[in-house]
Amino acid sequence: MTAITWAFALASLAIIVVPGPSVLFTLARGVAWGRRVAVASALGNSLGTLVLASAVALGLGPIATRWPAVSRVLQIAGGLYLVWLGAQALRRRHDVARTMAEPQGGRPTLGLALRQGFVVGGLNPKALVFFLAVFPRFVRAGSTPITVQLLAMGVFFSVLAFASDSSWGIVAGTARVWLSGSRARLVALRVVGGTIMVALGGAVVLGAVLD
């Protein structure tokens, strides 16, 4: 792997492991219905994320890359939004127990879990902000078209997201009693996630301003 690939992998991992909509959704599925539903939900979520990344690669991504001013504005806006998401997570940290509460109704089939995960992934604002604000920074001029580079990043990100989210789901499904039995642990999870999102958003804004 090249240095730029390693940098992209680390940036992707930093945003993926932050407890956000996808992670909390997978955790909730693991706690409520066990490992199989959690993994199916994570797979659907990753497929939705891939569709979102593809839309960015085929549209806004190349535009942002070709016009640096547009890219800078998107990076600043994206960074500020990440800061806002992190601040919201910190402000509403005590609401996390409601997110993790067992949903009403019976156990979903694996197909339904897959479809529900797809919707969550396709509508994940954290992923969209990351694709718009960060992907263009790793594009390099050369023989490979910009769109192809962005699509490859989207595939890589989605595979990494599935590996991470499904791991969260398996852990939650295995330790469902431990996780659901302590509000303090769930609040701590949200605090850590909010802090990382604020720090990452600040770094994105600072990088755009100094670029």
Task: Describe the overall structure.
- α2 (21-33) packs parallel to α9 (146-174) and α4 (60-66) packs across α5 (68-91).
- The protein has helices at residues 3-16, 21-33, 35-58, 60-66, 68-91, 96-99, 110-122, 125-133, 146-174, 176-180, 183-210.
- The chain has one domain.
- The two termini are 25 Å apart.
- Residues 101-105 have low confidence and may be disordered.
- Helix content is 81%, strand content 0%.
- With 211 residues, it is mainly alpha-helical.
- The chain is built from eleven helices and no strands.
- In terms of structural class, how would the helical and strand content be classed? mainly alpha
Distance between the amino and carboxyl termini? 25 Å
User: What is the share of helical residues?
Assistant: over 70%
Oligomer: single chain
Most strands sheet? none
Order of helices and strands: HHHHHHHHHHH
Q: How many domains in all?
A: 1
Silhouette: globular
Average pLDDT taken over every residue: 77
Strand content: under 5%
